[in-house]
From TrEMBL, chain A:
Keywords: Cell membrane, Membrane, Transmembrane, Transmembrane helix. It comes from the Bacteria. It comes from Paractinoplanes pyxinae. It is a multi-pass membrane protein. This is Branched-chain amino acid ABC transporter permease.
TrEMBL record, chain B:
Coiled coil: none annotated. Keywords: ATP-binding, Nucleotide-binding, Transport. The keyword ATP-binding applies. GO terms for molecular function: ATP binding. Residues 44-291 form the ABC transporter domain. InterPro entries: AAA+_ATPase (IPR003593), ABC_AA/LPS_Transport (IPR051120), ABC_transporter-like_ATP-bd (IPR003439), ABC_transporter-like_CS (IPR017871), BCA_ABC_TP_C (IPR032823), P-loop_NTPase (IPR027417). It comes from Paractinoplanes pyxinae. This is ABC transporter ATP-binding protein. Residues 1-35 are annotated as: Disordered. Pfam families: ABC_tran, BCA_ABC_TP_C.
Length: 368, 296
């Protein structure tokens, strides 16, 4: 098919990947997945280990942090990258997922007498709750465009945080403690314990893989095309028969679902949440990750999610002379973002379409 | 308006391929009513439509109807209300008064995507593609208008997804071939040449499987050879059974291809008829030359 042909013509690693037959691609993907599952053990690998392993936080915990940041970046990428809806309040959905879990499971919850569920039972309920939150936010606001939508979503996240801070049911700073861990035991010991973060990372990674498969399926279908068409020219899309409102609402609901997944995992690992966790800065950070990695492209969003989590964690426990570098993490992080945006305005891994476009422009400049 | 150049009625006479009916400058050629009768039923009816923007009357009591299977021209000087009329017919504007009926059913107040799915497709005066999607994907968005793949069936790759994806892709490739840009199927539409982009827009509109295709100045910015190609493309589209509404500045193109024409000036209909009738209508000549009617 000609679409594939042009994909083949592109260079670099992805160009090579696209030229391979399906079984080679399958093997490569499988090896990459296995390598990802083995990441907690790279601390022991000579040469690689000490360079990438964090010092101030144990490496598996840093990996788990990366996993929920990656989830959030993937979810926000659907909203911002595919459908082109600027959402500055994405942390709101993360909060709804986490609070949903806490309310249904924590002994501190007023619902505990009635529910007191296990973590796994609370997961679907919390996810449905976040999707409903996505639709509730989207229904009245998706008539707005661009900056106006951004402001409304910003307000949404603040509302969630302020409600969590000031209502007694949501317990503000005191938060919810003793949220149960995910279930399962191995040789009499629970798999998801307090000390070892490796199982949590594996759980997060598995969820990420499922989300990647799901979003990929949506992207390469009528749904993904409708999102892109809305992003490119909303009115033209509508005139071509796209139900713009419906698909924007779906983008919001799916983004909310993925954000909620992040929140559910976070609550299950931390076992404690309070209103301090869900600050606005968090939304901005995830958005920065998506843009930095390459908006509209899952590989880019993943890389962005990894970086926004890894850079600050890597700086923990490091010092330069007398200065504790972790104190300056946001300054260093900000400088890194500016540098990336100056050197690679399309993001670290630009979407395939944008990459092709840049390549064609190069050809125009230097015709053979 | 993208094309400031206007041709005078004299130019139509000189350059039009059809013989000019010298004998009947104001009257109707004998052949015209017979030919009109051969045409099919009324497809779209613009019924006493008035459209006001605040104090500005953009359309004033305009009535005409399109018949099945014809190529219909809507012409007029700059600012005559052609595009406004066009937008009212495709659901972008809602008429202040009057009705617009498509296949006997009112389309006033319907949503744009409903009108598209009902069988009216359009292109834009300034090309409005989805610049970062490939040419094939652009056309597939149009083809998706009649698909029913839901988020669930896309997510789990249910049989309907495979069926519609395959047929939509084939149909889109056929349409790209039909308009003559199949070799650019995999290219990002932003990188297509201007002429290719115009053709792609037509293919995308055709993909929605329209009964009526509305083209808003499709020849703007074309050279004579490209215009000739476009003329043939429009005829081929008509031959597939699609009714075509053409808004155009270029008189040669309009005169050469249309079956019937309506002329607008200052939001009013000033003439209607076959190209030959319209060309010799004194009101039309006055409108284009800027002379008062009584002096013509």
């Amino acid at each position: 098919m000609s679409e594939k042909a042009s994909f083949r013509s592109s260079g670099g690693v992805r160009g090579w990947f696209g030229r391979q037959p399906w079984y080679i691609r399958g093997v490569v993907v499988l090896l990459a997945a296995v390598a990802a599952y083995l990441l907690p053990y790279v601390g022991d690998v000579p040469l690689i280990g000490p360079q990438i392993v964090t010092e101030g936080i144990d490496w598996p915990s840093a990996l788990f942090n990366m996993s929920y940041y990656v989830l959030l970046a993937l979810g926000l990428n659907v909203v911002v990258g595919y459908a082109g809806l600027l959402d500055l309040g994405y942390v709101g959905f993360f909060a709804v997922g986490a609070y949903g879990t806490a309310l249904l499971t924590s002994p501190d919850s007023i619902l505990y007498e009635d529910t007191g569920w296990k973590w796994l039972m609370a997961v679907p309920a919390a996810l449905v709750l976040t999707m409903i939150a996505g639709v509730i936010l989207g229904w009245p606001t998706l008539r707005l465009r661009g900056d106006y939508l951004a402001i409304v979503t910003l307000g949404f996240a603040e509302i969630i945080r302020i409600v969590a801070t000031s209502t007694t049911t949501l317990r503000g700073d005191r938060g919810f403690a003793s949220i149960p861990h995910p279930p399962g035991s191995w040789g009499g010991e629970p798999i998801f314990g307090v000390t070892d973060a490796i199982p949590y990372f594996w759980l997060g990674l598995t969820v990420i893989i499922l989300v990647i498969l799901g979003v990929r399926n949506l992207d390469r279908s009528r749904v993904g095309r409708s999102w892109l068409a809305i992003r490119e020219d909303e009115e033209a899309a509508e005139v071509m028969g796209v139900r713009t409102f419906k698909y924007k609402l779906w983008a919001f609901a799916i983004g909310a679902f993925i954000g909620g997944l992040g929140g559910v995992l976070f609550a299950g690992e931390q076992s404690f949440i309070n209103s301090q966790t869900f600050v606005l800065q968090f939304s901005i950070l995830v958005l920065a990750g998506v843009v930095m990695g390459g908006s509209g492209n899952m590989a880019g969003a993943i890389l962005g999610g990894v970086l926004i989590s890894y850079i600050p964690d890597r700086l923990r426990g490091l010092s330069f002379g007398d200065t504790d570098l972790y104190e300056y993490r946001f300054a260093i992080f900000g400088a890194a973002i500016i540098l990336i945006m100056v050197l690679r305005p399309q993001g670290l891994i630009p979407s395939r379409r944008r990459a092709m476009e840049l390549k064609d422009r190069e050809k125009e400049v230097a015709p053979q | 308006m993208t094309e400031p150049h206007q041709e005078t009625p004299e130019e139509w006479d000189r350059e039009n391929a059809r013989p000019v009916d010298e004998a009947a400058p104001t009257g109707k050629p004998a052949s015209a009513p017979a030919r009109n009768d051969v045409r099919g039923d009324v497809l779209l009816e613009v019924d006493h439509v008035t459209l006001r923007f605040g104090g500005v009357v953009a359309l004033n009591d305009v009535s005409f109807s399109l018949r099945k299977g014809e190529i219909f021209g809507l012409i007029g000087p700059n600012g005559a209300g052609k595009t406004t009329c066009f937008n009212a017919m495709t659901g972008v504007y809602r008429p202040t008064e009057g009705a617009i009926r498509f296949q006997g059913e009112s389309i006033v107040g319907k949503k744009k995507h409903q009108i598209t799915r009902g069988g009216i497709a359009r292109t834009f005066q300034n090309v409005r593609l989805f610049p970062e999607m490939t040419a094939l994907e652009n056309v597939m968005v149009g083809a998706d208008a009649h698909h029913k793949t839901s988020v669930i069936s896309a997510l789990f790759r249910l049989p309907r997804f495979w069926r519609e994806e395959k047929s939509g892709r084939q149909r889109s490739l056929e349409l790209l071939r039909f308009v003559g840009i199949a070799h650019r199927a995999g290219d990002v539409s932003r990188n297509l040449s201007y002429g290719e982009q115009r053709r792609l827009e037509i293919a995308r509109a055709l993909a929605t499987n329209p009964t009526l295709l509305c083209l808003d100045e499709p020849a703007a910015g074309f050279n004579p050879a490209e215009k000739e190609d476009l003329l043939q493309l429009i005829r081929r589209i008509r031959d597939t059974g699609v009714t075509v509404l053409l808004i155009e500045h270029d008189m040669r193109l309009v005169m050469g291809v249309t079956d019937r024409i309506v002329v607008l000036e200052f939001g009013k209909k000033i003439a209607e008829g076959t190209p030959a009738e319209v060309r010799d209508n004194p009101a039309v000549i006055a409108a284009y030359l800027g002379v008062p009617t009584d002096a013509a």
